[in-house]
Design goal:
Elements (H helix, E strand, L loop, with lengths): L9 H11 L2 H5 L4 H4 L6 H13 L5 H14 L4 H6 L3 H8 L3 E2 L2 E2 H15 L6 H25 L25 H11 L23 H10 L9 H12 L8 H11 L9 H4 L19
Antiparallel strand pairs: 1-2
């Protein structure tokens, strides 16, 4: 199928999708629902956001289970877990943890990296903003990734791959760190709004499989594979609709896919009520009997 060209009506239809979206229904399936209760304590919420985003691999049920299990191992306070719990105690608590290819020893190493960082800094926003001031959002994400990788200590196998940078040669879409930054920066529901020095208009879309599939078929990107270039294309297209907050569409597009509201095939029974069906490349040139 040829790349879809956005219709002139797409901005109006996306806004309608956003206005009518059942946020509360989808919040229950999103890992941020487990981070939001911590928002009163910025440090704990920041740490939880990083861990929850790192664990955002696989289906939402498994992700939420992993985040909940990690919270239980930390006695409900990940901020204290990384800064105050003795390393030997923390190591034993995480020894048997596993979620997909992510292991407890990797999460323990991250706790050590964060603990040493917080001994000298108030928030990860500091390092992100330093990179942002040099090289924009990609520079901020690169600085954050490099900080979380740590330096000077041997990391467990596979640990460094948890923190790709958009400036690395692979030009990864960096979905998980971009997601964490979205949670921490946006102050509109359902996000946390803990960081105040990063403009929402500069955020990028966390390009997971659902968002990429829908974005491709709406003509927000012509790229068939996920990459940082695709992230930039999708974000720029959404920025033309909302220059001040392009990332607000992320939750809606992601959960339209997760919920099955977008079946990723032509299904008149499911597609009929979809606000953006007239813009979808799957339906271009097809008759639709209402």
């Amino acid at each position: 199928m040829r790349a879809t060209v956005p219709t002139p009506e797409l901005p109006e239809h996306l806004e309608a999708l956003y206005r009518t979206f059942p946020f509360d229904r989808s919040l229950a399936d999103d890992p941020i629902s487990l981070v939001r209760p911590l928002a009163r304590d910025p440090r704990s919420a920041e740490v939880a956001a990083v861990y929850a985003a790192i664990l955002a691999v696989g289906n939402t049920t498994a992700i939420r289970g992993a985040v909940r299990r990690l919270g239980e191992l930390a006695d409900g306070d990940l901020g204290r877990f990384v800064s105050e719990v003795p390393p030997s105690v923390r190591r034993r608590a995480l020894a048997g943890f596993r979620h997909r290819w992510i292991r407890g020893d990797q999460l323990d190493h991250l706790a050590g990296v964060l603990g040493r960082y917080y001994a000298q800094h108030a928030s990860l926003e500091e390092v992100f903003r330093e990179g942002f001031d040099r090289d924009g959002f990609a520079g901020g994400l690169d600085a954050l990734a490099r900080t979380l990788r740590g330096a000077g200590r041997r990391a467990p196998p596979g640990y460094l791959r948890l923190f790709p940078s958009p400036l690395d040669p692979a030009r990864s879409p960096c979905k998980r760190l971009t997601l964490a930054v979205r949670w921490l920066v946006r102050d509109r529901y359902p996000d946390l709004g803990i960081w105040s020095r990063v403009p929402t208009g500069e955020l990028r879309i966390p390009l997971d499989l659902h968002v990429h599939w829908i974005a491709y078929h709406l003509g927000l990107t012509a790229r068939r594979s996920r990459s940082w270039a695709a992230v930039e294309e999708v974000t720029e297209a959404l920025r033309r609709i909302d220059p001040l907050d392009p990332a607000r569409f992320d939750f809606v597009l992601c959960h339209t896919g997760i919920s099955g509201d977008c079946p990723k095939e032509r299904d008149p029974a499911v597609c009929a009520p979809c606000r953006v069906r007239p813009d979808c490349g799957m339906w271009h040139g097809r008759r639709f009997a209402a």
